[in-house]
Design brief:
This protein is α/β, with parallel strands linked by helices. It is built from 13 helices and 10 strands. The longest helix has 19 residues, at 242-260.
């Protein structure tokens, strides 16, 4: 395994990060199977696990905590978690305020059965909370030893820069990682987020490299799988949506390119993300052992320049084919009340 330095932190992590979103009720992956997948990943050289409090409403963290405690692997695993999303009906059990951060971290530490979190991340921006409020609270967590590094997830470039300036101005700990959505079908972060991450020395831990299943090889023209996702998430899966039609055409062309290159589409997709010089590690989110095995091999894929050039022809650099895959909608654009008197 070719370990990479996570930004300028000095922490070395595997290019594949085991995402635990499917551990627990959300993915139907119970403790025994989750433990087996963690063991398989560790045996393959993966030393990085990512979860969040909201995954299965704490269930994912509980499973990860039990597995690491039982296996004795906690000390050799770089463990990441996140806060921000609602964890109850109380309007203060969410967001990026000091009040919630201090409670959320204690809940996560308890579920994870550990004294510290290696990378504690803000899961999404919170326009209602000053970034200095968030940085101040997270800095206290670092200085207390409960957290080693702090990071963000799905922040626009402007907010990443603002946070860096605020940390310097106020003497706070600075964010050292960013976790953006990045795949061949969602390349928008190439325009500003990834260059900003490089400029400030941030580790980049990408999520959804398979575009929510679109790049597994199952989506082909004339053979679109039936899925409840088209009902639950129509903006991302309903084939009457123009952006999803563009995704289908691209996924079909990419599957053909992968076959010509002697690769699976999964290998092509993971190799593409890992080829970007800003990327530290790509987060995979397997639900079964079969999924895990098909994705672990991506760590060893090195795409030649001609294949990368052909990918650019199918989906141009900086283009996200469906805006719904960007991961976060700026309320300044999505809320009419913010742009109309």
């Amino acid at each position: 395994m070719d370990y990479r330095c996570m930004g300028r932190t000095g922490i070395k992590v595997s290019p594949i990060c085991l995402g635990a979103m499917m551990f627990g009720p959300w993915g139907g992956t119970e403790l025994d199977e989750s433990a087996a997948m963690v063991g398989r990943a560790l045996d393959a050289g993966v030393n990085f696990i990512d979860t969040a409090d909201v995954y299965s409403w704490g269930g994912s963290e509980e499973i990860v905590g039990q597995v690491l405690e039982k296996s004795g692997a906690r000390d050799r695993v770089v463990l990441a978690s996140k806060f921000h999303n609602p964890m109850g009906e109380d309007p203060n059990q969410r967001g990026n305020s000091r009040r919630w951060i201090m409670k959320a971290v204690e809940n996560s530490l308890r579920r994870l059965r550990t004294d510290w979190i290696d990378v504690y991340q803000v899961h999404r921006p919170d326009p209602e909370t000053d970034i200095e409020e968030t940085l101040s609270a997270m800095s206290d967590l670092v200085r207390s030893g409960k957290v080693r590094q702090i990071g963000t997830s799905t922040f626009p470039a402007s907010m990443l820069v603002e946070a860096q300036w605020a940390a310097e101005r106020r003497g706070y700990e600075r964010f050292t990682t960013e976790q953006p959505p990045y795949s061949i079908l969602a390349r928008g972060v190439e325009a500003e987020v990834l260059p900003v991450a490089q400029r400030y020395g941030l580790g980049v831990l990408t999520w959804s490299p398979l575009a929510g299943g679109w790049l597994t090889g199952r989506y082909r023209i004339g053979d679109v799988p039936e899925s409840r996702r088209s009902v639950m998430l129509p903006d991302r899966y309903d084939m009457t949506v123009e952006g999803n039609q563009r995704k289908l055409a691209a996924a079909d062309a990419l599957a053909k390119l992968a076959e010509e290159s002697g690769l699976t589409l999964i290998e092509l997709s993971l190799g593409f993300v890992l080829a970007h010089p800003a990327v530290t590690s790509v987060i995979i989110g397997p639900r079964t052992m079969e999924h895990l095995d098909s994705q672990l091999v991506g760590a060893d894929v090195r795409l030649p320049s001609d294949v990368l050039d052909r990918i650019d022809e199918i989906v141009p650099p900086g283009v996200t084919l469906n805006a719904a895959d960007a991961g976060w909608a700026d309320p300044a654009l999505s809320d009419p009340a913010r742009r109309r008197r």
